[in-house]
Amino acid sequence: MDTDAFRESLMKNLKQLLMAIVAILTAGLFVLGVGATAHAVPNPAQQGGADGVLFFTDITDGAIYLGNIGQTQLPKSVFWQESGSKVDSVAVTETRIAWSSFTAVSGDPLFGKVLISDIALTAGSITTVALPGNPKVTSLAADYFAERFYITTNAGDVYSISSDGTDVYLAVSGSVAGTTISNAIKDVVRGLWVDSYNSNLYFCTWVTGNVWKSSITGTTVSTPVVLKAGALTSCDGIGVDPETQHVFLAAVNPSPGAWTSMTQAGVLTTITPSASTVGGAPSSMFVSRSTQKIYFSTELNVYEMGYNGSSLVSLYSGPNTTLGIQNIAVYYGANQSTLAQVVAAAKAAQNPVVPPSPTLAPTAT
What is the structure's pLDDT at 71? Predict the structure, then answer.
């Protein structure tokens, strides 16, 4: 074999070897990455699942609990708790969890802040994102695959926050967008959803009951437009089926809550749950496309029901008889082994990591 032929053969073999190594490493990363095994390539039909970690907040306990949505009445574990907080909002990406409070006042550790932690195999430290001007965080949602959290504030703004907390971006400025849009954002009460599969952001307003929609490109959120005016007043829960792009809405009044589904064309259909719920109105939800179920919380319980309201089941009963469970989020695609490790890791993160006090040098005498 001449020198040129040998060099060409060698380069070809090295290229094939390199491609094989890359393939092995890529597969390994998907195995190691929490949630990536089930959703390496986002598929709308796979949103949700029969298994996953359900996170839910309890405002009276100042806690975030978690459990397995695949096992009815599984005893819940404490993910995080701080008695001085009024935590009432939670959202998750593939690797992290964020929480905040709509009802926090000055002195609450969540006032004007969003806390972020790892929910993978190790709990990690907690990152605190302080928002400019300490506005009230009125809703919180996650772009599951893009690893970003979105919030609305009582100042009429929408923020986009990277899941590691290092990038805080004013995605929609109420003062720039104008009075109509600013007032709409101010009227959001927990009703925020990000469709990570189709890169859309939705929110519903409390007083007017309007449904708004924006598209997401990177960190940029388009100017919100009204998808349906007057869809459901007192709306404080919203979710989207990413395959059909049907929007599900829940309202506080009349108790125990009105339920409606809506097409992208604005056609509304009333949903009647198959049984009565306990504990007031729905205040948040998670839409599982793969099982065609909706998970939602009242102030006392966490429920599961079919898209049409059928097969309503109580999954968890909270310990508090008045204000209690306010918000839920689901980390899905986890197998049982990963789920067990997440639960174990989360138990070690019941409180924020507090840095040690500095050691003072001895005073000279």
Answer: 61
